[in-house]
Design goal:
By secondary structure, this protein is an alpha+beta fold. The chain has a 6-stranded mixed beta sheet with strand order 13-17-12-16-14-15. Helix 13 (364-373) packs antiparallel against helix 15 and helix 20 runs antiparallel to helix 21 (549-565). It is globular, with a radius of gyration of 23 Å.
Length: 616
């Protein structure tokens, strides 16, 4: 997933429903005891209070079918549920395995939820899950069909369409036709209501069936994406993700958005029709979540240290603060994930489509020169040093299928770059006088200082870099997803970050497909530079149709190796995320999708003790 500042990957203004009696009942309902977690002061859970978050930028999209940055995803978890989700467990391996959420149970061949040939998935919905509609009504299988149909709407399509167009029967044709529909409310509503999607059907109100093109061992991971959250009928009354839509979103999770002011504020309160007995994933301890936007990173850090805020929204800790507070063992610093697991990678996207410098970036020698010039050691130090980050020399991070310990490329002494070798390559490519490139980056997190470091590295190799900053919302919402900006030469290099959409075995699809599949560019594709390789595409296809995990792993490695041979990106570092917690925050459990503390699991130390109850 696209990284915002928290990992660096990743993206509803609900009309208030004044049901005071229900709200009071929900507020007084006992909460289940949380699963155990590694924390210096877990204590007994407490229920109530307001969790205050501060951050720089707004989300990229508020529509679940298109939101794709970490700040959006951590927000979605509070009010939008999926058929399956990741359980809040402390063990890394257990946490990266999906569990039933809106579904009654995980489908398997043994229980009849997966067909013998692995191409049909059938899931039964829990009863008692309701929308905050007027009046409240159940979430149905038709709501999931509607969500998958909206994936390819012509206004705000799904962030990674190839996940589904290459997996679900009929999805590619449906998307091709829908993308050509007029971008109006009436046309979109008509297309959704009139056209059937062959591979997604509601067998009845509580049973959803998916038909796949080929068996896909990671299909449940695709269903765990926020893209796959259900969509109510009311959403068809608004242009997808429009300002009007953002004022009229609905909830089926423990919280609902009661106030949304673009780039300024998001406020959530308890959903009065959420029944904790129907939710095995979310404990929902706090009563309210207030998110203040437009606050720079330094002020965010100061507020967290002072205790006037509880969590950062779209920002990671400042490197200097992180180093000093970790050095003294400050328990308010939360590093995720634990052990030798890294959650994200930072890299430079190369613009293959732009006209600048007479198309110099389309020359392999030029791209190789840039890859050799970068001082990755300096970037590692800026990102917390050893234990928090390390140089990356492959197209994927070490937690991703396709990574091989012996496949490093463009290694330089001490990872400090080799400007002399870079200058020789530039001269051989006909650019002895150097180049002038435009580097774009977002203004939150460590991106500004990393951009300056890259600028200094490339200058030593004779490449002058013009830095162009953008807010996170503008960077991910406008600049990067639109291939026309690349084709116009608005940027040459982009400092980006990526967190796998899921972790564990066979997660190559979650990185290699969205970033490097050349058959899916433009729209909301994450292949921002327009890279397209027949060899890499063929390896991707082999991985997606492999008969075993071993064969898939081999194919993913071939695809990642080809990306590096083509220098489609310049990998910089892989890193963990460090978050500063306010002094009141307890039970910061790693949110895999949001790469942040799971907002539905934290409680506040000054809230009343919660009465424990058994798991539903």
């Amino acid at each position: 997933m696209t990284e915002r500042a928290v990992a660096g990957r990743y993206r509803r203004a609900c009309a208030p429903i004044l049901l005071a009696g229900c709200a009071l009942a929900a507020a007084c309902a006992p909460a289940r005891a949380p699963p155990p977690d590694v924390e210096s002061d877990p204590g007994p859970p407490r229920r109530g209070g307001t969790l205050t978050m501060v951050g720089n930028s707004d989300i990229d999209h508020l529509l679940t079918t298109s939101g794709y940055v970490t700040s959006s995803l951590v927000l979605f978890q509070t009010f939008a549920r999926e058929l399956v989700a990741y359980p809040p467990l402390p063990d890394y391996e257990a946490r990266t395995q999906v569990a039933a959420d809106l579904a009654v149970e995980l489908p398997t061949r043994a229980n009849g939820g997966i067909s013998a040939d692995g191409r049909v998935y059938r899931l039964r919905l829990r009863s008692g899950v309701r929308w905050t509609s007027t009046p409240p009504r159940p979430v149905t299988a038709q709501d999931f069909v509607r969500a998958f149909k909206l994936f390819c709407n012509p206004v705000s399509p799904v962030g990674s369409p190839s996940y589904y167009t290459t997996t679900i029967a009929g999805m590619a044709d449906f998307c091709d036709r829908f993308s050509k529909s007029p971008a109006t409310v009436d046309a979109i509503r008509r297309f959704v209501r009139v056209n059937e999607l062959d591979g997604v059907h509601a067998l009845d109100d509580r049973t959803i069936e998916f038909r796949l093109l080929t068996p896909a061992a990671d299909f449940l991971n695709l269903l765990a994406m926020s893209f796959a959250a259900p969509v109510p009928e009311e959403y068809l009354d608004y242009l997808p993700d429009s300002p009007e839509f953002r004022r009229h979103t609905l909830s089926n999770g423990p919280y609902r958005i009661v106030r949304y002011v673009q780039n300024r504020e998001i406020a959530l309160e308890r959903n009065p029709v959420w029944d904790p007995a129907t939710d095995p994933i979310r404990a929902a301890y706090v009563d309210r979540i207030d998110i203040k936007l437009g606050i720079d990173d330094e002020l965010t850090q100061l507020q967290l240290e002072a205790g006037t805020a509880d969590l950062g929204f779209d920002v990671a800790m400042l490197a200097a603060s992180q180093a000093s507070l970790r050095a003294i063992g400050d328990p308010r610093v939360r590093v995720i994930p634990d052990a030798d697991h890294y959650d994200s990678m930072h890299y430079l996207v190369v613009n293959f489509a732009g006209p600048n410098n007479a198309g110099a970036l389309r020359e392999p020698g030029v791209r190789e020169a840039l890859a050799l010039a970068v001082d990755k050691h300096a970037l590692m130090q800026l990102s917390g040093g050893p234990g928090m980050s390390r140089p990356l020399r492959q197209a994927v991070a070490s937690t991703v299928s396709g990574y091989r310990p012996d496949a490093d490329r463009f290694v330089t002494p001490g990872d400090r770059g080799d400007p002399a070798a870079a200058r020789r390559l530039l001269a051989a490519a006909g650019h002895a006088d150097g180049l002038r490139l435009r580097l774009v980056y977002q203004t939150n997190g460590r991106y500004p200082i990393e951009a300056q470091s890259v600028q200094a590295s490339l200058r030593r190799a004779g490449v002058e870099v013009e830095l162009r900053p953008y807010t996170g919302a503008e960077f991910w919402g406008r600049l990067m997803p639109d291939l026309h900006n690349a084709e116009r030469g608005e940027w040459d290099l982009s400092l980006s970050g990526w967190v796998p959409d899921w972790f564990g075995s066979n997660n190559g699809r979650s990185v290699i497909v969205p970033l490097f599949d050349g058959r899916r560019v433009g729209g909301l594709s994450q292949n921002f530079g327009g890279y397209n390789s027949l060899r890499s595409n063929a390896a991707i296809d082999r991985a997606l149709t492999a008969a075993s995990l071993e064969a898939a792993e081999s194919a993913w490695a071939d695809a990642a190796g080809q990306v590096m041979a083509d220098v489609a990106i310049i990998p910089l570092i892989e890193r963990k995320s460090a978050h500063m917690l306010g002094s009141r925050v307890r039970h910061c459990s790693w949110s895999i999708l949001g790469d942040q503390c799971d907002l539905t699991q934290v409680w506040l130390a000054d809230a009343p003790l919660a009465a424990p109850r058994s798991q539903p």
